[in-house]
Amino acid sequence: TPTPSPQAAPVAQRKTKAAKDTTPPKDARVGSKKAIVLELLRRPEGATLQEIMSVTGWMAHSVRGFLSGALGKKMGLTIESLKTDEGVRVYRIKPQ
User: Fold this and answer.
1) Helix count (H) and strand count (E) of the chain?
2) Closest among 22, 44, 23, 47 to 33, alpha carbons compared
3) How far is it, in rounded angstroms, from Cα 85 to Cα 87?
4) How far apart are CA 36 and CA 89, in angstroms?
5) Mean pLDDT by 10 residues, the chain (96 residues)
6) What are residue 64's phi and psi, to 5 degrees?
7) Backbone phi, then psi, for 80, in 5-degree steps?
8) What's the confidence (pLDDT) of residue 26?
9) How far is Cα 26 from Cα 30, in angstroms, rounded to an integer?
10) What does the domain layout of the chain look like in residue ranges?
């Protein structure tokens, strides 16, 4: 009787990652916190961290993360960060 030759163990194939979605992000839903923050930031005078915190109920680090991530990276908006003469930081969307 012939002996079966040893076979290599089957190798699982790696799954390839899907391509990143390059579609532009949708505008914020009317009345959402994102829409409210965008409205504040589009004003010529912008919005302070405290103003954004009071309308959203978010902590300061969450507001800064939202400005950087959701608006800056995901939506591609340029957020200006300015200090007033009183030393209060003001954020606004830089006109394109």
Assistant:
1) 3, 3
2) 47
3) 5
4) 19
5) 71 72 66 95 96 97 96 93 95 89
6) -65, -40
7) -90, 140
8) 62
9) 12
10) 33-93
> Which string of DSSP letters, residue by residue, matches 23-60?
SPPPPPPTTSHHHHHHHHHHSTT-EEHHHHHHHH---H
Terminal-to-terminal C-alpha distance of the chain: 80
Residue tagged 């994102």 (tokens): 34
What radius of gyration do the chain's Cα atoms show?
24
Return the amino acid letter for 9: A
Architecture in CATH of 33-93: Orthogonal Bundle (1.10)
Burial class (CB in 10 A: 0-12, 13-18, 19+), 24: exposed
